[in-house]
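Incident log, structure service

09:12 report received: a user says their structure output differs between two submissions of the same chain.
09:20 pulled the input from the user's history:
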Amino acid sequence: MIGLWLAGGFLWDSWAHLHVGVESFFTPYHAAFYAAMLAGAIVVAVTSLRNRARGYTGWALPPCYARALIGIPVFFLGGLGDLVWHTFFGVENRIEAVTSPTHLIIGCGVVLVLAAPIRSALGARDDVRSLGAQLPLLLALAACLEFVHLGTSYAFDASAARIDAPPPALAGSLDYFTATAIELYKTGTGVMIVLLQALIEMIFVVWLVSRFRLAPGALTVFLVLGDGMMAAALTNDRPMLAIHLAMAFVAGVVGDTLIARSRGAMRGGALQAFGFLVPLAYFGTYFALTIALEGTWWNWSLVGGVLVWSALAGAALGTLVGAPGRVDVLAVPVPRRALEPQRLEQTAS
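09:34 re-ran on a clean worker, output below:
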């Protein structure tokens, strides 16, 4: 939950940069995510003290939470650097805000903290079966996905709605070549955005389903939480939020259905089919709702082509991850003896 609180604070700040015109470091938007990390530091500290009171020594935390201890000071050092950066160089807006060096340092601290519940779940995969047991994993991964969306927010929506159409290139007009160049640029950018977002979504999804036997509804929860806040930050008076929530929901339902039909964690052909169908459902919903609610300036060849490309990108990821004989280097279980004679109390980062 703290991870989603962090993501929500950052995306609220992103919304403010687009709609309010932030001109100061000291804003309620910054306070939201700094308070989230402070709460996370308190949770880790209290858990460590309680475990020490039970007789454990050192940091008295499970090994998977060691990186969280590194991430917290990295975050606050990045925040201090951000204050200095804003003092000398001003407050960034739009794309500059997601490429700022101090913002990237803060993001590294966040990822280190969010890695703790993910590593914890990897170390106890045999015990993480129910939706309730998988929630810490899903919440942490959803927060990570939101941060990736934030870092690529300039390429989040394909802008296929009719209102986003480039100016018409009228033959014989003085601006014909300029309008043609703009149309080609917007078309190519839209195709690349679909491919980029398909790969971003499916990197998370394919990794998740190849390592865990997800509970019913788990994938839907992950995708809706992982997409919703970024869509909310970018939407204005248009149905972008509703469209992206529907995309995540439909793709999640399709994925959960395929998971229910499989046996165990997905491998081989099942993972390839999964990788093909989930992005197809995801962007199929996007174009269906965009056309129905706003109309589109894309022609049918373009729509059909990017749908196929997004599905092929997902299938390719499924092929790579599910290839026979791959080395599962990320899913190294935490030795149970490291937690004996009794389990250390887990934090809820």
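09:41 both user submissions now match this output. Likely a transient worker issue. Closing.
09:42 reviewer note: Residues 325-332, 336-342 have pLDDT under 50 and may be disordered. Residues 170 and 301 are 22 Å apart (CA to CA).
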